[in-house]
Specification:
384 residues, alpha/beta, Rossmann fold, 3 domains, 6-stranded parallel β-sheet, 4-stranded parallel β-sheet, 17 helices
């Protein structure tokens, strides 16, 4: 956006901190930067405000913007449909247009008096990676004749620490099957230092004699960049809950979902998460609601979820094995993923073809600008 001519008042990377203690330690600086942004908005009085995700800041920012009479468009909804539904009143008062990326979000908001529009998910319009399996194998010194399994443990160090050990032990169990001898792709998120990942793999600080024996049986783990490339060529994947599950869905790779947090956090989440009628969701045998976005979009469990105490190597191995072979379970998941992926893009009223989410957001911004936008800029929507 800076390259497009926008003025950068506050640098997002300077105020992006994860975790309670980290945020608390940097709170004075974060608040100073927030006030700097509010002052800039009050001084410059923009014609329209585009808020993107980040509800902790944007919901407060919207209050100051609406006081100026500036129309507010919000792109990528906060997950009010899962928890913190008390924020809905603030959305109703402060947001003129809510542009949502999941199909169930539109009826959720509209039924509660918010002007919402489902524009589709940006990942759904990305073309599949063009690199061939043979070229990918040559680039990373892989054997194209073997099965590749992708591990996506998360984009934060805490997630990797919590999720990677059982993922590795699962691979070790699968590697015990002589006929299997899979190879492992581990895409490194841009937020993770590859050296740190290598240290985690080398240290083998995963407690328990069984884990130690299992890791000794691991095949070579290949660190790669680009999760979509890895998912495209992987036979199956183990994916930590989050945006990566939508990546796997849009690529069409069979996968299982995992996540581990502290027992206290998990117990609180079980009490707090409540889905509205717009999301048909059934609890599993342990009383857990689904959390993986593909399952919420589909309205049923199309990919297995293993959370906390159910997140074990034995459970993962049993779920992953049929996805590696040409089984009815694999065919059923592939069909379900394709059907669910189609729900991520609404059809264009003009052509009936899938609409471009970002283009539709741009069109909505221009609609909010009228009649203040200069006549010369009122180009047809297709040219926005």
């Amino acid at each position: 956006m800076a390259a497009a001519g926008f003025e950068r008042v506050v640098r997002a990377e300077d105020v992006a901190h994860m975790g309670f203690t980290e945020v608390l330690r940097h709170a004075p600086y974060i608040y100073t930067q927030y006030r700097k942004l509010v002052t800039s908005i009050q001084r410059n009085h923009p014609d329209v405000a585009i808020l993107i995700d980040f509800p902790e800041v944007n919901l407060r920012l919207a209050k100051h913007i609406k006081r100026l009479g500036v129309p507010v468009l919000w792109f990528v909804s906060p997950q009010l449909w899962a928890w913190k539904r008390r924020r809905l009143r603030s959305i109703q008062q402060r947001v003129d247009r809510m542009m949502v990326i999941f199909p169930f979000e539109q009826p959720f908001y509209r039924n509660r008096g918010v002007a919402a529009e489902f524009v589709g998910h940006p990942l759904a319009v990305l073309p599949l990676p063009a690199i061939s399996r043979e070229d990918y194998a040559a680039r990373h010194n892989l054997d194209p004749a073997k099965q590749w399994i992708a591990l996506l443990p998360g984009s934060r160090q805490s997630e990797v620490r919590n999720n990677l050990p059982q993922m590795l032990l699962t691979i070790a169990h699968l590697n015990l099957e002589v006929s299997r001898r899979c190879q492992v792709l581990l895409p490194v998120a841009s937020t993770i230092d590859p050296v740190w990942i290598r240290d985690q793999l080398a240290s083998q600080e995963y407690a328990g004699a069984e884990a130690a024996r299992g890791i000794a049986l691991l095949p070579r783990i290949v660190l790669v960049t680009g999760a979509r490339d890895a998912l495209q060529h992987a036979r199956a994947a183990i994916v930590a809950s989050g945006t990566a599950t939508v990546q796997a869905l849009t690529v069409g790779t069979p996968f299982v979902v995992v996540y581990r947090v502290s027992a206290l956090t998990f117990a609180l989440a079980q009490r707090l998460i409540r889905y509205p009628a717009e999301i048909p969701a059934e609890r599993d045998a342990d009383g857990n609601l689904p959390i993986a976005m593909p399952n919420l979009i589909a309205g049923r469990r199309i990919v297995p979820e293993f959370l906390n105490r159910r997140f074990t190597a034995s459970n993962l191995t049993a779920a992953l094995r049929p996805l590696l072979d040409n089984t009815p379970a694999r065919a059923e998941m592939l069909a379900a993923l394709a059907q669910t992926r189609a729900q991520l893009l609404p059809g264009s009223p003009q052509t009936g073809q899938p609409a471009n989410p970002i283009r539709r957001v741009a069109e909505a911004v221009v609609e909010l600008l009228r009649p203040t936008v200069p006549v010369a800029l009122r180009t047809p929507a297709t040219n926005v």
